[in-house]
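Quick one, tokens below. Sequence please?
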């Protein structure tokens, strides 16, 4: 009789199991079902025959003359093939111990046996001889320490018949039924068969205190540490773990590096010195270092390096080449190095070929009452590849480890770190779907993988740092991304476009995109993420004959990166309270919306935008690069060469070009930062620009901006604006100054200088902190295209501007990524429209909650819309918005949100080019029609007059809202012409239209009021002799019903080409530039205190601008000619005018209401003596 439910075997002492079980848990399907053992007889006998069979064995033993327990020694390794499987095992090379007993037992049981059969201990199995792991396993067996012990007992095992196990059909675990003592020849049976491994079943429900204690209990394994006396690695004794407790740790640095193992044998050590040098560099040093793809050979070399031992005294695994330490379990392993002692365990991930390390820092954590909840760190390396099977596997693995951590350590501070192998490049994912490499369901699974850690209360360290402090990994931020960059590539740790080792490991063309595989996740309630950086991005010398003890020599054969991944490191601060939690302002957005199926593909959106010529062509890109390079060359002319003793300039592109969201029709706005005065700069610049006329540079005109003049240039066919900022401290510390906080003394600059510098600083913050520039840029193009075609993109009319779209969009991108883990362009857009369609524009301000963490800005009644920028001196970017334009913007946002909610919706419908203007011409029953007709005038003069008229139209719109607030009005920001108008016509006639929705108002009375309003408007226009010439033009404003508009279309003439080079007197005479220098002298650097970048704080009631004006005018102790008024012009922004020229008479055509006064400034020293926004008053001492 035989039975596979019982066995007669020899089992080594438990302290010898560890090295063998490290391999068995990976390669032996019988791991934990069987202990490490040598079969004497298997199958043995039925369970009910065990007692008799045991007595038979004892009687056979008594017949042997040898009475002392034999010495066991397993010093050989081998494998055999059977049933299409390879079995790897350990055996004794020379002894025939127990062979005689085995043969006699089998003979007594009347069974056949093979006299030459070797008794062995199974370590693992693989499928067949072609298995790539075969050589690796054999080498690992050779690294096992020799197992030696005295065999004092023979063990009798029975199979567990527990039918409640997960798979009742699978063989049950073997348990110990009895033992035969070889010295006394006696049998000891167990009352109940005993398990060899701890049961995973819970003993029952636990109360909170019991649960907290179990969450604090150390794990089973201890790290290795180097014994300098014995000059070998030893496992840390349990007794010394508490003796080496760290001090009160409040901060922690964690680093992760995939060192890129190779599969060939013998292993190449050429990259080892580069990897070790990367680990020793300052940017990589950490308190805890996690390495992936560590092989036995690499770990053996790493442990020999003294510099590594000094930084990290504790390591999870010792060197496999040390004779008393076994090999690592896998070919690709996770190894943890630490400054502090820890305990750890290796856990399997859903029966995959990879494991996860769970570490516990016994003396680091947070207190709950009197119990310390220790820090738990889990290191993972998820399955690689982009197939349906691999995506499913990743989801199972990540779900498994997250579930284990949340169930086992729900109260502990937790860190999850490693190589997640989750593709992030939208181009890679969408191409894989399009080519049927993965299914749409797998694409959805990848999105779920991004959300899963966040749902478990974890936050991505890179995301947290990026949205707060910025990521400077963008290589060329002014240029639009390549067509393959659809998003998901910023912060990449695996970049085949930059790393030749990564490029070699890719298998298809769409794989060769940057991916953010490596991540560090922390529980958001327990940590503040204070820093994040990458390392390992420098090449080093390859050394094929590298030896750990040798010094670098001349044996290098080329340059290489250390790995196909970049390393990452983050700085953490343990939170003792709720400060780690995001502020309420970071929760002011809904979770990402489910996008309609026909809007999900980003590539389809890119194709549509390309067809609409939204993106610049390669020729456009080259032309602008050439123009910018030429302008820089002409302006600077090597002035940064100190040997020549000339001042240095920094030329910075800002606006859409600086952000990389420009189109073929965009100008390039530049700010030049230098150390000389504005007068000297512009004199020098104009001279150099005039001299470069033969190279295609023209000065078109001078624009008088609120805080300094701007030169409008044409460099070839590219329009460019040039502004100057005189800031010695900025020029001397460029570009480091941009990274400094606003409170740094380097920004102790005059009000006007900070205003000119503001676009540079805001642009730098946007570029650094937008978490996915490619996705942001695509979304920006869509929103700008939509707003332009819907007639709400025109800052001069009080509609949206580029900076406003950037602020609105970057806020959504940051909050989406912070709350949802990943962002795609369709999701960004759907959330953008929903969020701002539901936004309370009347009571709330839009701002970046990661920049303005403690915002105290208070809106005034004159701000119907508040979209707050970043740096001072002025926060609200929507000061030109009126009630009318604000209402129009809100209606359009709600319309777009409603459209995206429709079942049958596609991008072309949302972005239709013609519906906006057509709807505008048919929506209103009544219009204000401003007609401008020209004859006998040049197109250049017509263009100037139309620009002037355009600026006046906004004041009419505001006046309409003031005199008839019950009427809803909307101006279309583009001129209309007659349907049959042609560019060949000798005369030009164009129309500005304001639609009027009379609603339930008293139409007749309201229209009469408007008639008076537009009559006054016409009179004011006719009095402006600088622009209006009655001999060649006629302007008339009327109220007309919709039916009398006639057949109109948008004026699509390119008016930008009707400009000529400016004469010297148009640029500015000597008196003008002298006034610029005088203004500079009145605002010396260092006179003004640093201005905070947040809103005002109220200390009391501020005296009105009228009171201050009267005091300056009538107080005999004050010289009114020494004071300037800064005010808000509806069209040009902030302007200045002397107190003596200020008109207070409401009937005067130059009258400006006092509520538009922003500040009063003293000429003699440039000091601001009264400021509305900052509530400063040095005249009366109020505010």
């Amino acid at each position: 009789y035989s039975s596979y439910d019982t066995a007669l075997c020899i089992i080594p002492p438990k302290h010898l199991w560890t090295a063998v079980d490290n391999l068995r848990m990976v390669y032996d399907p019988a791991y934990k079902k069987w202990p490490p053992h040598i079969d004497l007889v298997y199958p043995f006998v039925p369970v009910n025959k065990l007692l008799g069979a045991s007595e038979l064995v004892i009687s056979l033993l008594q017949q042997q003359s040898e009475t002392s327990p034999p010495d066991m020694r397993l010093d050989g390794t081998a494998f055999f093939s059977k049933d299409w499987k390879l079995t790897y095992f350990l055996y004794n090379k020379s002894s025939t111990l127990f062979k005689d007993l085995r043969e006699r037992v089998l003979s007594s049981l009347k069974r056949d046996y093979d006299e030459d059969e070797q008794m062995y201990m199974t370590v693992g199995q693989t499928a067949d001889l072609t298995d790539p792991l075969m050589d690796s396993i054999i080498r690992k067996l050779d690294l096992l320490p020799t197992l030696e012990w005295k065999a004092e007992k023979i063990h009798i095992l029975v199979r567990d018949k527990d039918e409640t196990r997960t798979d009742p059909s699978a063989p049950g675990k073997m348990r110990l039924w009895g033992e035969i003592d070889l010295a006394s020849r006696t049998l000891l049976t167990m009352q109940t068969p005993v398990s060899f491994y701890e049961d995973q079943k819970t003993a029952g429900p636990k109360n909170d205190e019991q649960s907290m204690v179990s969450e604090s209990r150390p794990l089973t394994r201890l790290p290795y540490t180097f014994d300098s006396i014995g000059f070998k690695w030893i496992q840390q004794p349990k007794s010394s773990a508490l003796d080496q407790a760290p001090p009160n740790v409040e901060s922690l640095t964690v680093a992760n590096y995939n060192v890129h193992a190779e599969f060939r044998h013998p292993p190449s050590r050429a990259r080892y010195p580069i990897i070790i040098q990367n680990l020793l560099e300052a940017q990589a040093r950490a308190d805890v270092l996690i390495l992936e793809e560590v092989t036995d050979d690499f770990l053996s070399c790493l442990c020999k390096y003294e510099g590594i031992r000094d930084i990290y005294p504790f390591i999870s695994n010792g060197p496999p080449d040390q004779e008393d330490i076994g090999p690592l379990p896998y070919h690709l392993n996770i190894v943890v190095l630490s400054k502090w002692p820890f305990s750890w365990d290796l856990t399997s991930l859903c029966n995959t070929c990879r494991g996860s390390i769970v570490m516990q820092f016994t003396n680091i954590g947070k207190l709950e009452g009197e119990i310390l909840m220790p820090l738990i760190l889990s290191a993972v390396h998820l399955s690689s590849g982009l197939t349906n099977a691999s995506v499913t596997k990743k989801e199972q693995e990540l779900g498994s480890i997250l579930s284990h951590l949340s169930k086992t350590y729900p109260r502990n501070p937790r860190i999850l770190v490693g190589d997640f192998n989750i593709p992030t490049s939208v181009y890679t994912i969408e191409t894989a779907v399009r080519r049927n490499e993965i299914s749409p369901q797998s694409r959805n699974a990848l999105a779920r993988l991004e959300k899963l850690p966040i749902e478990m209360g974890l936050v991505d360290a890179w995301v947290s740092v990026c949205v707060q402090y910025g990521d400077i990994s963008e290589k060329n931020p002014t240029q639009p991304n390549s067509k393959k960059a659809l998003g998901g590539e910023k912060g990449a740790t695996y970049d085949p476009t930059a790393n030749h080792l990564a490029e070699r490991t890719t298998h298809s063309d769409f794989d060769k995109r940057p991916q953010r595989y490596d991540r560090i996740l922390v529980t958001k309630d327990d940590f503040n993420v204070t820093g994040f950086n990458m390392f390992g991005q420098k090449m080093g010398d390859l050394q094929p004959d590298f030896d750990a003890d040798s010094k670098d020599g001349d044996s290098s054969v080329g340059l290489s990166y250390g790995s196909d991944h970049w390393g990452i490191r983050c700085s953490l601060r343990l939170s003792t309270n709720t400060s780690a939690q995001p502020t309420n302002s970071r929760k002011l957005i809904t979770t990402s919306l489910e996008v309609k199926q026909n809007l999900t593909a980003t590539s389809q959106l890119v194709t549509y935008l390309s067809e609409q010529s939204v993106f610049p062509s390669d020729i456009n890109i080259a032309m602008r690069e050439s123009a910018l390079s030429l302008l820089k060359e002409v302006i600077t002319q090597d002035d940064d060469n100190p040997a020549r003793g000339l001042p240095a300039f920094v030329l910075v592109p800002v606006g859409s070009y600086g952000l990389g969201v420009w189109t073929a029709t965009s100008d390039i706005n530049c700010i030049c930062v230098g150390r000389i005065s504005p007068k000297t700069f512009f004199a020098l610049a104009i001279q150099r620009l005039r001299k470069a006329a033969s190279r295609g540079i023209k000065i078109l005109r001078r624009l008088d901006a609120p805080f300094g003049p701007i030169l409008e240039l044409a460099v070839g066919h590219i329009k460019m604006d040039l502004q100057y900022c005189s800031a010695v401290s900025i020029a001397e510390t460029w570009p480091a100054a941009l990274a400094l906080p606003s409170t740094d003394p380097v920004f102790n600059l005059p009000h006007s200088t900070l205003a000119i510098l503001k676009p540079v600083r805001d642009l730098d913050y946007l570029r650094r902190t937008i978490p996915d520039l490619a996705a942001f840029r695509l979304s920006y193009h869509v929103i700008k295209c939509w707003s332009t075609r819907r007639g709400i993109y025109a800052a001069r009319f009080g509609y949206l501007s580029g900076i406003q779209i950037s602020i609105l969009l970057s806020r959504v991108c940051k909050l989406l990524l912070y709350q949802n883990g990943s962002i795609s362009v369709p999701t960004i857009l759907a959330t953008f429209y929903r969020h701002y369609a539901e936004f309370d524009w009347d009571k709330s301000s839009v701002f970046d909650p990661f920049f303005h963490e403690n915002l105290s800005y208070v809106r005034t009644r004159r701000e119907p819309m508040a979209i707050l920028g970043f740096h001072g001196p002025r926060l609200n970017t929507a000061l030109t918005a009126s009630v009318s334009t604000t209402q129009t913007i809100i209606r359009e946002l709600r319309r777009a949100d409603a459209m995206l909610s429709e079942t049958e919706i596609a991008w072309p419908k949302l972005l239709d080019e013609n519906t906006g203007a057509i709807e505008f011409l048919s929506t209103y029953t009544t219009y204000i029609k401003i007609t401008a007709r020209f004859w006998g005038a040049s197109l250049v003069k017509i263009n100037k007059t139309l620009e002037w008229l355009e600026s006046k139209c906004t004041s009419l719109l505001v006046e309409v809202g003031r005199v008839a607030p019950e009427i809803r009005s909307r101006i279309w920001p583009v001129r209309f012409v007659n349907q049959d108008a042609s560019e060949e016509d000798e005369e030009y006639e164009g129309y500005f239209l304001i639609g009027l929705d009379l609603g339930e108002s008293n139409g007749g009375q309201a229209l009469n009021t408007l008639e008076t309003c537009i009559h006054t408007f016409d009179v004011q226009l006719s009095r402006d002799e600088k622009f209006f010439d009655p001999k060649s033009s006629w302007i008339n404003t009327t109220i007309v019903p919709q039916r009398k508009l006639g057949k109109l279309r948008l004026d699509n003439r390119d008016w930008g080409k009707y400009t000529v080079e400016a004469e010297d007197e148009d640029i500015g005479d000597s008196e003008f530039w002298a006034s610029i220098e005088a203004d500079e002298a009145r605002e010396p650097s260092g006179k003004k205190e640093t201005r905070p970048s947040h809103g005002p704080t109220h200390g009391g009631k501020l005296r009105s601008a009228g009171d201050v004006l009267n005091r300056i005018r009538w107080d005999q102790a004050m010289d009114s000619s020494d004071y300037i008024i800064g005010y808000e012009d509806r069209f040009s922004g902030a302007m200045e005018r002397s107190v003596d020229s200020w008109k207070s008479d409401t009937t005067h055509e130059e009258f400006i209401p006092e509520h538009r006064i922003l500040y009063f400034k003293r000429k003699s020293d440039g000091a601001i003596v009264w400021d509305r926004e900052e509530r400063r008053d040095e005249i009366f001492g109020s505010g």
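The mean pLDDT is 84. The radius of gyration is 39 Å.
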